[in-house]
Design a protein that fits this description.
The chain contains four helices and no strands.
Length: about 90
């Protein structure tokens, strides 16, 4: 699963280089968009960046999420994405 986390992290930094430049910690708990808990780290992706992330991960893992049981609306944290992609790998 560490390998999947590394791929997801690289994909996020590829889409949002500013996160890498500022050395923002990307953890399994990091929210992709926003967090209800003020202590939860937030990456702040917008809808276009989220679509780009899905596209990159589909290409990387050789899957089409539409052909799986993965619901994009359930992917709220980096950990959710890692879990989903681990099931396709």
């Amino acid at each position: 699963m560490t390998e999947v986390m590394n791929v997801v992290t690289r994909a996020i930094i590829g889409i949002r280089p500013d996160l890498g430049e500022t050395r923002t910690a990307i953890t399994r708990e990091s929210a992709l968009f926003y967090a209800a808990d003020p202590d939860q780290p937030v990456l702040g992706l917008d809808s276009m960046e989220a679509l780009e992330l899905i596209s990159v991960l589909e290409k990387e893992f050789g899957v089409q999420l539409a052909d799986t049981d993965i619901r994009i609306s359930d992917l709220r944290t980096v950990g959710d994405v890692v879990e989903a992609m681990s099931g396709t790998a």
